[in-house]
Design brief:
This protein is α/β, with parallel strands linked by helices. The chain contains six helices and seven strands; from the N terminus they run ααβββαβαβαββα. The strands form two sheets. A five-stranded mixed beta sheet has the order 5-4-3-6-7. It has a two-stranded antiparallel ribbon with strand order 1-2.
């Protein structure tokens, strides 16, 4: 009689635990060597707080990380296009982050630049330049798209323009995001980066 009473209760408790565990957000389990190496890199927000790179990945289906340059005219020309991409894909669950990985990156600089440019997403500082080094990034506006598991799904330029934006450009990041959120592999997984050389 005891077993008959206990067993169903045990199943209910176990099932409830399993359900709650499955609904709890978890950090990404990075599945590539570069992503794993980057997980512990500490970025800094505009308030001077440490932000582990690994904490940025895993709470959205896809996370876009754009390597920012404060001095690059290509970056400044593309600011409106970056906001357009954000406006198009943020409502579809895509997360956006920009990272200043150049010499002199600081909480003060990222706060100033984010406000001046009207970025609707975080701009973080990487004073050590380690994040760019891990992903082999040398050019401003190089953009990496990660999935929830930390896999790199796209890496390269934002589009095929430099300082003059054209309607007939090849929109590498926009097209990759459209493919990914639609359940397809990106039509182009590596686009040429056409910004300024990052200064370290």
């Amino acid at each position: 009689m005891v077993l008959k009473t206990f067993f169903p209760q045990w199943l209910i408790v176990f099932g409830l635990f399993a359900c709650l565990s499955g609904c709890t957000p978890r950090p990404a389990q990075f599945s590539s060597a570069s992503s794993s190496a980057a997980a512990g890199i500490l970025l800094v927000d505009q308030h001077g707080r440490d932000v582990p790179f690994g904490s940025l990945i895993g709470d959205a289906p896809f996370t876009v990380v754009e390597f920012f340059s404060a001095h690059c005219p290509c970056q400044r020309a593309h600011d409106p296009r970056l906001r357009e991409i954000y406006d198009a894909f943020s409502p579809r669950g895509v997360k956006f982050v920009a990272v200043d990985t150049e010499a002199g990156a600081s909480p003060e600089r990222v706060a100033k630049e984010a406000q001046a440019r009207g970025y609707p997403y975080p701009l973080l500082a990487d004073p050590t330049g380690k994040l760019a080094e891990v992903f082999g990034v040398t050019i401003a506006m190089h953009t990496v798209i990660f999935d929830r598991e930390g896999r790199v799904r796209y890496s390269g330029g934002l589009d095929s323009n430099r300082t003059h934006l054209k309607a007939d450009a090849t929109f590498y990041v926009r097209d990759a995001l459209e493919d990914l959120v639609s359940g397809r592999e990106p039509r182009i997984a590596h686009g040429k980066a056409l910004g300024c050389v990052l200064q370290h």
